[in-house]
Design goal:
Length: about 350
């Protein structure tokens, strides 16, 4: 593949071997959702030969063997990532610590200093059953970058009712709140100048400065965005509810639940499209290349396609590839990107 133009590809095969065929430093974002180390036979979903082979490979020798199996795949993922690329690795509590310490934090791979976030995804609100431990209703999604120059687009969640109540004033433009134009600390430059007879250096206990330059303050004033109180308090800026993009995302994601309703395709470990949409929009831009080496039910590539990203999906299960192919065809329209379906002849009869 090294000398070929990368196009969208859905590939049937062992992801370790297929990853080795991908050009180094060519992928912008990888979302990896490997089978969890849960010691449950339900991981064999389709029952075809490719999936059973993969299952048996992982379980040949306990957690150490599982980590070794995953590590050699993450090594290839690291190689194919661009210097500005990143990996989101999805796992649960069974192997979370082992994966972080023995794979992701290794100095010859991403390293501890390149962990950007550890997201906790609360996947359901089901109540705990009566047992000797609290119910575990979350997964972990590690976010590691290949270097300090990685793609990151700030994500937001909807404002809560309590946050909306902060916008407690209203004019003909709508609801707004008043926010400070002065912050602590003296300045000698533009932001330390007197404006509208207000000397920022004489405000507060130790002096303050404007949050922006006098020219920008004049612009705000001309737009009617500055509120001048009659009681002598310093002017404040009107910030309208419609201007707010929402609440900046935290590491705890409790606003997205498991796939349900019309979205479900009968794949037991299917991830919701909103989850992948958040990850793809956060860590890539339109035209970037997204890779999912454990394509499963095809959520990653289906969402990447809708978001105008290029993509590669790999899975060893014939049925997983068939389901993903059907899903992609079902959502196609005149604006959809073409993709190549790469099959192995001897697997077709599996």
């Amino acid at each position: 593949m090294a000398n070929k133009k990368i196009i969208n590809r859905l590939i049937l095969g062992d992801n370790l071997e297929k990853l080795k065929e991908i050009e180094s430093n060519s992928v912008d974002l990888i979302y990896a959702d490997p089978p969890f180390f849960s010691n449950q036979d339900y991981e064999v979903i389709w029952g075809d030969a490719g999936e059973i082979r993969s299952f048996e490979d992982r379980w040949a020798g306990g957690i150490e063997h599982y980590i070794g199996w995953l590590k050699e795949r993450v090594e290839e993922m690291y190689r194919v990532l661009k210097p500005t690329g990143s990996l989101f690795l999805h796992c649960d509590y069974h192997a979370e610590a082992y994966i972080q310490v023995n794979i992701l934090d290794r100095s010859d791979l991403f390293g501890r200093n390149n962990q950007i976030n550890k997201f906790i995804w609360k996947r359901s609100d089901n109540r705990s059953s009566i047992s000797k431990s609290a119910r575990k209703n979350y997964d972990v999604i590690f976010f590691y970058a290949k270097s300090k120059k990685y793609t990151f687009n700030q994500a937001f969640t909807d404002l809560s009712d309590s946050s909306i109540k902060i916008y407690n004033k209203e004019d003909e433009k709508g609801l707004y709140q008043l926010v400070p134009l002065l912050v602590s600390g003296k300045r000698k430059g533009e932001t330390g100048k007197i404006w509208k007879n207000v000397d920022p250096n004489k405000q507060g206990k130790g002096g303050m400065h404007w949050v922006t330059t006098p020219d920008k303050l004049d612009e705000y004033d001309e737009q009617g965005l500055i509120y001048f109180p009659k009681d002598g308090v310093t002017p404040r800026l009107k910030y309208y509810l419609e201007q707010s993009p929402g609440v900046p995302l935290t590491e705890v994601w409790d606003d997205i639940k498991n796939a349900s309703g019309k979205e479900t395709i009968g794949y037991p470990t299917q991830k919701p499209e909103l989850l992948l949409q958040r990850i793809i929009e956060m860590a890539s831009n339109e035209g970037d290349l997204v890779l999912d080496p454990f394509v499963g039910g095809g959520t990653t590539v289906a969402v990447a396609d809708k978001l105008n990203r290029r993509w590669i999906g790999i899975d060893q299960s014939v049925m997983a590839v068939k389901v993903t192919d059907f899903r992609l065809k079902k959502q196609q329209d005149i604006f959809s990107q073409e993709y190549e379906l790469v099959l192995r002849r001897y697997d077709c009869a599996s």
